[in-house]
Amino acid sequence: MNKSFYITTPIYYVNDKPHIGHAYTTILADVIARFYRQLGYDTFFLTGLDEHGQKVQEAAINRKIEPQDHCDEMAPRFIDLWNKLHISNDDFIRTTEQRHKKVVQDFLQLVFDKGDIYKDEYTGLYSVSEERFITEKEAESDNFRDIKELKEINYFFKMSKFQAELVEYIEKNKNFIQPIHRRNEILGFLKQPLADLCISRPKKRLNWGIELPFDTDYVTYVWFDALINYVTATGYGKDDNLYNKWWPANYHLIGKDILTTHAVYWPTMLLSAGITLPKTIFAHGWWLSESAKMSKSIGNVVNPLDLIEKYGVDPVRYYLMREMVLGQDANFTMESFIKRYNSDLANDFGNLLNRVSTLIKKNYEGIMPEQGSKMPEDEEVVESANQLVNNVDKKVKQMKINESIEEIMQFVRSINKYMEDQKPWALVKDNKSSAGRILYIAGESIRIAAVLLSPVMPNRCAEVLYVFNSGRSTNWGELKSGSKLNDHKTLFPRIQ
Ligand code: MSP
After folding, report:
1. Inside any domain, residue 195
2. Cα distance between residue 332 and residue 98, in whole Å
3. Which of 114, 120, 157, 349 is the most buried (most CB within 10 A)?
4. What SS3 class is residue 303?
5. Distance 112 CA to ligand 1 centre (A)
6. Residue 123 Cα, ligand 1 centroid: separation in angstroms?
7. pTM
8. Is the residue at 405 inside a domain?
9. Closest residue by CA, ligand 1 atom 17
């Protein structure tokens, strides 16, 4: 049986217009999922939408339509974008689906029956924009809009009961929260006593949510609903085989803005329900634009659709993956996008393919020459290709995606250098078989680089493999001599 690999993105608020930040998390998950599939893992990649809560209810009321209709109209904006970005998700979950509502209610009942949910009166400051009660200190910061004082009877989850257990778990499991500075942040946060979590909303205030199974006057708090999507999609409570195959998730990929909900709320909920904790919660940084977080309210968002239309999907995917060091913030600028595109894709990768295929067409009737017996400089190339395959495998498993891409590009550059040193274009007049050997070595190197870059740029790399009529093995020597190259356009035309 193959090893299994389960990766998730946050489920996005259905009200948001998807921007490059949302696209980033989803592309990142897609790239990782494709890498693991390529490595032979059975892979389950989940994304979806978070559809309940106050903001959706208000938006629907403003439009004088039912919240469900509102969600059904909004959902295609995400689905279309994911299609356009060639996202290979295996499932798309919406929290308004019946399968999810059932799991949330079963989960709530289970935690209630364990005695971990109680009813209490609560007075506090409530942030409508964040849909949660906030502390007075938080209210003083400018991070919250629409703050109201609320006095309400509500249900509470005994989060405090699991504080010590959670701290111990995080301390024992070094990879549970990554990168390490986020782990430290959470351990720091958990030094203060943890409050219990208000997990209900009275229907008279908000009814767009999942009803509590033990009190029909209330719906559940959006986060208690949303987080559970990660187990719903595995078949929890419905199909034990699938559930056992996928759960616990290998990665919950999230942005740093939702670390506390994932690294504190979610694990304590799971501890109460007696469900194994996910293996890793990985928080990436933000895409900034002019040094501010991209967000709808600031109005500095980059629209991924405009970019794709202008430059193609793969270059956008490449840029996002290459430019962000996982865990840190990165700045999105058109200038750096164009620079990256021209130097890495047009110059290094695209040109190499052009040079090799043009020489083969001109001198070998377009037929891939024989590899022949290798010279020491060829052996060096083979060795560095093999090493590259191992390094990329290792780096991806350590979530060093940008480094793995950089290594592939270094290899590509070294092949450009190899071509310059060996000069097959000059050699071909007197020594056709040596020149042929060099072109084979360069061609096979391009093929392997294309296989390794396929998770990042699935389309353009498939084109490269099509040019060479070749498969996706990363073993040296798979490239077929004697087969006719297919014609191709310039892979990455330079941006002026
Ligand atoms: N619905 C919640 C998540 C529930 S998960 C159980 C939510 N949704 S969201 O629509 O606001 O999307 C949040 C995610 O989008 C972030 O965690 C992050 O992954 C991504 N990003 C949104 N803006 C971003 C940037 N400017 N930069 C990078 N990623 C950002 O929170």
Report:
1. no
2. 39
3. 349
4. coil
5. 29
6. 29
7. 0.95
8. yes
9. 255
Token pair for 258? 């939702």
Helices 458-467 and 313-323 pack at an angle, to 10 degrees, of 110
CA nearest ligand 1 atom 10, residue: 12
Question: According to DSSP H, which parts of 283-400 are helical?
Answer: 304-311, 313-323, 334-340, 351-363, 376-397
Task: Supply the DSSP string of 145-185, one letter for each residue.
Answer: -SEEEEEEEEEEE-GGGGHHHHHHHHHH-TTSEESHHHHHH
Residue 384 located in a structural domain:
yes
Strands in 211-212's sheet, in edge-to-edge order, are: 200-202, 215-220, 211-212
50 in Cβ contact with 16 (< 8 Å): no
Nearest to 220 by CA among 199, 236, 193, 203: 199
The CA-to-CA distance between both ends of the chain, in Å, stands at 50
Structure tokens at 395: 């780096």
Q: Is residue 436 part of a domain?
A: yes
Per-residue pLDDT of the chain (496 residues; tens, 9 = 90+): 789 999 999 999 999 888 888 999 999 999 999 999 999 999 999 999 999 998 999 999 999 999 999 999 999 999 999 999 999 999 999 999 999 999 999 999 999 999 999 999 988 888 877 777 787 878 887 777 789 898 889 999 999 999 999 999 999 999 999 999 999 999 999 999 999 999 999 999 899 999 999 999 999 999 999 999 999 999 999 999 999 999 999 999 999 999 999 999 999 999 999 999 999 999 999 998 877 777 767 777 777 778 899 999 999 999 999 999 999 999 988 889 999 999 999 999 999 999 999 999 999 999 999 999 999 999 999 999 999 999 999 999 999 999 999 999 999 999 999 999 999 999 999 999 999 999 999 999 999 999 999 999 999 999 999 999 999 999 999 999 999 999 999 999 999 8
Ligand 1 center to residue 460 CA distance, Å?
28
Instruction: Tell me if 294 CB under 6 Å of ligand 1.
Output: yes
What's the CATH code of the domain at 366?
A: 1.10.730.10
Q: Which of 220, 257, 293 to mutate to test the pocket of ligand 1 (most atoms within 8 A of CB)?
A: 257
Domain membership of residue 452 as a residue range: 335-467
Our answer on whether the CB atom of 25 is closer than 6 Å to any ligand 1 atom is yes
Mutate to test the pocket of ligand 1, among 7, 16, 50, 329 (most ligand atoms within 8 A of CB): 50
Q: How many domains does the chain have?
A: 1
User: Nearest Cα to 493, choosing from 349, 309, 357, 360?
Assistant: 349
Shortest CA distance to 242 belongs to which of 234, 252, 233?
234
